[in-house]
Each structure stands twice: as C-alpha cells, then as structure tokens.
Amino acid sequence: MYVLDLFELSVSGFFCRRPRHKTPFDQGRAEKGLIMSSFTAKKLDTTALLKDTDAVRTHSKQPTESSPIMGLVRRRIERTGERLWRLEDFDDLPFSAVAQSLSRLTREGAIERLSKGVYYRARPTTFGKSLPSPTTIQKLASRRKTVYPAGIAAANLLGFTTQTARRSEVSTSALSVPRKLIGSETVVYTRRPEAWGRLPETDAALLDFLRRGAKSSELSPAETIARIVALLSEKGRFERLLKVADSEPPRVRAILGAIGEQLGKESAVIQRLRASLNPFSKFDFGLLTGLPGARHWQAKDITNKKHNLGETGEN
User: Fold this and answer.
1) Within 192-233, where are the H helices?
2) What does DSSP assign to residue 299?
3) Quick one: fold of 61-129?
4) Does the pTM of the predicted model rise above 0.70?
5) Residues 184, 187, 193, 197, Cα dihedral to 10°
6) In Å, what is the CA distance from 251 to each residue of 70, 254, 296?
C-alpha cells in the first residue's frame, strides 16, 4: 500500500501524486513485478481565464453596434427625434437587451436618463439641448405612479378657480415621486390613501378640495357650496367617494355626510358616516360652513369667531 505525498508544481500549474517511501511489503511486491508506477495530473488554473480582465470583457454580453437589438433601438430613437422613451416602448424586443442598449446610449450622450426606465431624447436648439415638456413629464409620472392634482391645480380642474399656481402641486399615494418627472419646484403631498388609485382623477381632486375645506375656491361661499353639491350630484360620484370614505380624515366624512343629507341619500348611508365620527369633535368646514346641515355634522361655528375678531380689532 502506498503512502502518498501531495505536492504542487507552481510553474506548470499541475497537481501531482507520487509515493513518499516504500514499505517492506511494497519491496517484496516490487521484486515479484507486482508494483505498477502511476502518475496522475490535474489542471489547477482553470479559473485563469475568468481572472483576466480582457477575457471577461471578451466574454461579456454587452450589446455592440453590430448587435441587432442595439441597432433597432438606436434607429427607433433617432428616427423619432425629441420624445420621452420608456422600456415599455420596446416590449416587442428582449427586455434585458433593450435595457443594456438604452444604458449604452445614455453613456454615449444620445439620450438622458430621467428616472428608472424613463429616458429623454433631446433636440438641438440655439441655447443648447431642449428640455422635456413639464406637462408631458407629469402625465408620464401619473402613468407610472398614482399622481393627482392638488391645491390650486385641483380647484382649477373642478372649476372653482381660473388661477394657475406659481408652483405646481400634486398628491400621491406613493412615498415619493422622481423629481425629474415632476420638476424640482413641484410641491408633493405624499401618502394619500391607496384607495384613491381606484378613483378617476376628478374624484381624487374633489377629495383633496374637501380636505382643504374648499379654501382654494375663488367663488363666494354660496357659489362654492352650490358647485360642490352639483359635482356630488353627478351619477355615481357620491357612491364612489363613499367607498373610500373610511380612509379619509373625519372632516371629509362629516362634509360628505352633510352633503349626502342635503342630496337625500339613504338613511343607512348617512348613519354609517355619522357613526364613524367622534361625537365630541368639531370640524373646520372652511367655506362649506354654510351647508344647511353643517352644524348638525359638528362643524365649527366660525360666525362668532369672526364677530369676536371684529370687536377686538384683529385682522
């Protein structure tokens, strides 16, 4: 029986086995011609190719100009000129190859990456490269994330004002929205209820308007109330808002209850809204304090407050 000694030949890169010494038993077998010498070798440097930077680069699957996918992506982008591009615009091509192609075009400066999966192809102008249209970007943002008009923008959409805010305002159910998609100056109100995602844009804007007590309206209190009642009278709207009412602040539920009562909605619906309110709380209805049932729905009495302020000469 051999006692083996293992050693490495660093120069050749082979692993070898050889007998370290022979026992008397082996000597006897050798005299009878029973011992056969053997040599086995094993290649040790099979990973050398992977350690070679040039080899890794050679074996990588980065798209080249001769790649059919790279060529198709480049031609489509160059043919259409200025526009926004998304990965979904190439859904007829392999996803990973398109992503690599867009990444390479970004490094080359042919397109600009605005956010994950969104790219912009600029056009040359007298003052340099063109910038993406804010309106188009916000529409794209609203498709990628749930984004709704808020503040003055919501009031404008609903017909309560003709103003346009100096800084855009949006609300979203997400924790954040990429700034390149909505603009660095845009005011973002985050963490709106996920239930808003099931609503049309106008309904979400209406809830934002109610959250603010209709204070962004340019109309008189009476005109504001008439308009809000008309909007909630439209077929199916009150019922849609009722479905998401549980995720709204108590003030919104109280306002919906007061308007629902005025519209003659079913008593079970009205009672459900009333039961969701703390009976000891008072709510600021803002411009909607003049609703016929406002006090019955725990609206704060702002008439006395205004009267007191007038007496003390405060503004």
Assistant:
1) 201-211, 221-233
2) B
3) Arc Repressor Mutant, subunit A (1.10.10)
4) no
5) -60
6) 55, 5, 13
Lowest mean pLDDT among 192-196, 208-212, 265-269: 192-196
Tell me if 184 sits within 8 A of 248, measured CB to CB: no
| CA separation for the pair 99, 35 (Å, rounded) | 64
With CA atoms as reference, report the closest residue to 139 among 173, 178, 182. 182
What string of DSSP letters covers 168-202?
-EEEESSS---HHHH-TT-EEE----GGGGGS-HH
Beta strands in 10-111 (DSSP E): 14-19, 41-43, 83-86
Q: How far apart are CA 196 and CA 200, in angstroms?
A: 8
Count of CA atoms in the C-beta half-sphere (13 A) of 305: 6
At residue 127, what is the residue type? F
- Give the CA diameter of the chain: 129
pLDDT averaged over every residue in the chain:
78
> What tokens does 298 get?
């725990």
Alpha-carbon distance values, 28 to 2, 14, 22, 91 (Å): 13, 32, 10, 77
Residue type, 200: P
Q: Which residue has the tokens 């043919």?
A: 79
Find all residues with CB under 8 Å of 19, minimum gap 6, and list them: 2, 3, 4, 5
| Structural domain boundaries in the chain | 4-57, 61-129, 134-312
The token pair at 309 is: 């302020």
As beta bridge partners, residue 6 has 17
CA distance 162 to 256: 25
At 113, list the tokens: 């990456």
Q: How far apart are CA 194 and CA 222, in angstroms?
A: 32
Helix (DSSP H) and strand (DSSP E) numbers for the chain: 14, 11
**Structure token digits, residue 6:** 């293992």
39 pLDDT more than 80: no
pLDDT-based confidence at residue 130 (cuts at 50, 70, 90): confident
**Residue 198, pLDDT score:** 85
